[in-house]
Each structure stands twice: as structure tokens, then as C-alpha cells.
Write a structure and sequence with these properties.
This protein is an alpha/beta fold and about 140 residues long. It is about 30% helix and about 20% strand. Helix 2 links the parallel strand 2 and strand 3.
Amino acid sequence: MCANCIAPQMAIVVDVTFAIDHPGVEKKEYGDAAIEGGPVLTRGSIISPVVFGMLMKTAETRKIPFSLHAAGRETSTDADAIHIAREGVATGLVSVPNRYMHSPNELASLQDIDHAAELIAETCRVVTSKTDFTAR
């Protein structure tokens, strides 16, 4: 690789998302993320289809439970800014379900956090200098 060339870049943003497995939260508004249901993978215009595919394939191969979330435009996470940084960064989003978000009683599962960490680590292991992040 030449000294002036920029290697392809990938970012995986980690955040929390609303868990819907308690009274008063609408599945149709927030999706189907449940405590101990595994990490939530977001798909949408901000998210690289290549990185999303790598995350989903890794979860399926490693038998890591996960659910899906659709983001129409922005994700309201750091992924929104990262994907347009420099010449563009292939960006994925992995979220941990969080019950009672923005309250003094937030709750997340250590199992979900462990699954998210395993998913990210295993996905990063398959990336090489030859990985093509261009959706074709």
C-alpha cells in the first residue's frame, strides 16, 4: 500500500436502544428489542449494507441472538456523523436493549452486553486489508 493511500475504513458504533418488554412501550414505535434477546442490529440509509451483512452473518454463524431495527434516516447515534467523515466510513450500529431508558432505573442485561462484545470482536476478526466495503 502506498504511503499516501488511505486504507478502507470500518466503524462499528455501540449504543443502547429501547427495550420494549415492559408495559407502556409500543413495539410498532421502537421495534422488537427485548432484555436478554441479544444485541440489536440497525439497518438503514446511514448503515453500510456491507458492515450490516458482516454483523448479521457473524451473529448467525456464532449463534449469537439478535434482533433487527430499521432506521429511516438518522440513527440518533454517533453513526450519523461517522459515516460521512473524511471520504466516508463504512459504518455499522450494534445496540444493547435498555429498559427504562433516561430514567434513574435503567436496566441492561450483562448477557446482552457480552453478546454484543463477542459479535463486534468476531466481526472485526474477518476484516482484512483486502475487505471491500463497497456495496455491489
